[in-house]
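Recall the central idea of this unit: under ordinary conditions, the amino acid sequence of a chain determines the structure it adopts. In this exercise we apply that idea directly, starting from the sequence alone.
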Amino acid sequence: MGVSTSSPGKGISVVTVDHPPVNALPVAGWYALADAVRAAGRDAEVRCVVLAAEGRGFNAGVDIKEIQARGDSALLGANSGCAEAFAAVYECEVPVVAAVQGFCLGGGIGLVGNADAIVASEDAVFGLPELDRGALGAATHLARLVPQHLMRTLYYTSRTVSAAELHAHGSVWRVVPREELRAAALELAREIAAKDGRLLRLAKAAINGIDPVDVRRSYRFEQGFTFEAGLSGVAGRVRSGFGKDVPQ
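Accordingly, the structure predicted from this sequence is:
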């Protein structure tokens, strides 16, 4: 359990999250994920990273129960840890392919929104239930997956969208049966990894350099409002009702 790294093929590194029951990561988990992705990207032999998860869903965001138990220190830690993990994916020196199954919520959107490509299972759903959790954030990353007005509607309603819908918007590369997800992600990773390693790293830096949005800065801006919601007491009031609709 936790975060592990494997090498299923030449030039490919798979970083896998396994934190039962729903891959809602505690503070330490976000930092571990960031470290694993950065380490994979620094490896001169690696040309593509696959970000995957075990279990029913890809990621259910932060561990709300840890925040409920530890209060502000855990909230600060989670915000910082998420920022580091999201940035690690975006700034990874080689392309990152996200392999998404089941639910991809909250912090999961931050991860896949910063990935270079997404392969998803047919049962995958994507969304930001932040307003139902007494939190804010990751609109930066949702806006990389869907058009602006849809992003706003999803954010305000806490609704989810399917992998098929994201495929229609062009943000998901392929949608496959769940049992074929890992193979499909590795197929894309192998195609990418077949390119010249140095040129791939230059391409990643070039594409990030022309990105119209500074994702690290814009996400940190969002987090300021998360802190305001916490200090005002509204986040705690909403969070106190958490637990009835979390994926089990």
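The chain has a mean pLDDT of 93.
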